[in-house]
Specification:
Length: 450
């Protein structure tokens, strides 16, 4: 049976599975590095690497916004079968993303230690954290292009190519990360910086692979004369991309700033708390990324339906995504609860730190389910071009709930209080987005943007 004639839940599942695996593998790529760091270099090195995570999220926030806006526009153009418009959007987005990556590489290369010092990093890890950040941020341009390309490929319904690319990235990390850390096979021993260098090499190799693979498949996103001709900044397209992506970027910036505030609070409890926080975040990502994948899939399917002028399908996409989130995220939450100690021990070995990280996970894991629900409502509304209100509601959950709760509850209950703040924020996100979706958005007229 042709894919287009299958029931929506089947088409959604076929799209979601590679997307979910891609997001898991993308997280796994970072996890492999962190496992090597924790096991080969110790807790202080792991804490230094954990310090980099909120910095990375902050600096790539607007590239994620750009990717989000581009994917929505490409989804609508693809739904309308307008291939030339797909290439115009791709060319403009790629060039802007490259320029942003170069700026990040410059800033990160010049001021890495100042950045980690501003986060309140414990003195014993400032030097190592800054050295790691410098190498990682210099590799921003290929990483940014990779993020953009995989997001835009999803706009044309392709989740297989990013998955294959990430498999290559994982294999590269497995092969070269320990060699670069310890200096195996006659290589210099780069220590902690070797883990960041391995990520850069992986990103470049994946981009090379995708270039040839997309060309061989005749993909609309392959580099050809038409795409090269559109490799310029089209101000009309850029305005639309910014209109759709800027709110997502702002939300990411505020979210990353809140993460920096949280890290600053965590750092007051010492290096062991920072290591436990980093380990718990690693486990959380495996539960949260699939929830985010369902939201991404909902956004793409809704955008394609809008581009094809099938407005009645949009609500069906929403409820299909809600069911998928319940099944997929719910199952992963249960697995993480059952094997929390074993998962934490992948990153850290100190028994007291393992126990602390496990306690944090037991507090917060369930809330990933409601986080997924809130993300779905927001994603579908953004696919229609309604971006500002969902953004404001997301910011309210962070600014009015998460940060105040973390500050107050950490004073009352210590480190676990911070994670209770996460639970409260995710719950508020779902309630805010659902109220706007059912109370206002469903009554509005939806109009295609391309």
């Amino acid at each position: 049976m042709p894919m287009s004639t299958r029931p929506l839940w089947q088409r959604f599942s076929f799209f979601l599975l590679p997307l979910m695996l891609s997001n898991i593998l993308q997280s796994l790529s970072g996890t492999i590095n962190n496992v090597y760091i924790g096991q080969m270099l110790g807790n202080d090195a792991f804490a230094a690497a954990a310090m980099f995570f909120p910095i990375l999220i902050f600096l790539i926030s607007f590239i994620i916004g750009l990717a989000s806006g581009s994917a929505i526009l490409i989804g609508q153009a693809w739904g309308a079968k307008n291939i030339d418009k797909v290439k115009q959007i791709t060319g403009t987005s790629m060039l802007v993303g490259l320029l942003m990556g170069l700026v990040v590489a410059l800033v990160g290369g010049l001021f890495p230690h100042q950045i980690v010092s501003l986060l309140g990093a414990p003195p014993e890890i400032v030097q190592a954290a800054g050295d790691y950040a410098r190498v990682a941020l210099i590799g921003a341009p290929p990483f940014f292009i990779f993020l953009l390309l995989t997001s835009m490929l999803r706009g044309v319904g392709d989740t297989l190519s990013p998955l294959l690319g990430l498999v290559i990235s994982i294999l590269v990390s497995l092969a070269i990360t320990p060699a670069l850390i310890q200096g195996w096979f006659g290589l210099p021993a780069f220590g902690l910086e070797g883990a960041a260098l391995a990520n850069i090499i992986g990103s470049i190799l994946v981009l090379v692979f995708l270039g040839f693979f997309l060309k061989s498949r005749g993909s609309a996103m392959a580099i050809d004369a038409a795409l090269i001709g559109h490799l310029r900044i089209d101000l009309g397209i850029l305005r639309l991309v910014v209109k759709l992506g800027f709110p997502a970027g702002v939300s990411m910036v505020v979210s990353s700033i809140s993460a920096i505030v949280i890290v600053f609070i965590v750092n007051r409890f010492g290096p062991d708390a920072t290591a436990a926080f980093g380990a718990a975040n690693q486990v959380m990502s495996y539960v949260q990324f699939p929830a985010m994948s369902v939201g991404i899939a909902a956004s793409i399917f809704a955008a394609q339906a809008i581009g094809a002028r099938r407005m009645g399908d949009v609500e069906r996409v929403t409820f299909t995504a809600l069911i998928m989130n319940t099944i997929v995220t719910g199952a992963l939450v249960l697995i993480a609860y059952l094997f929390s100690e074993s998962l934490v021990r992948l990153f850290i070995t100190d028994p007291s730190v393992v126990s602390l990280a496990e306690t944090l996970l037991h507090i917060v894991l369930w809330s990933n389910l409601v986080f997924g629900y809130g993300s779905i409502f927001s994603a579908v509304m953004r696919a229609s071009g309604d971006v500002w209100v969902p953004m404001a509601l997301s910011l309210a959950a962070i600014i009015l709930v998460e940060i105040p709760a973390a500050l107050i509850l950490s004073q009352l209950f210590g480190l676990p209080g911070i994670w209770v703040g996460y639970c409260m924020s995710f719950s508020a996100l779902m309630l805010f987005q659902a109220a706007y979706y059912f109370g206002f958005w469903r009554k509005k007229e939806i109009v295609a943007l391309v």
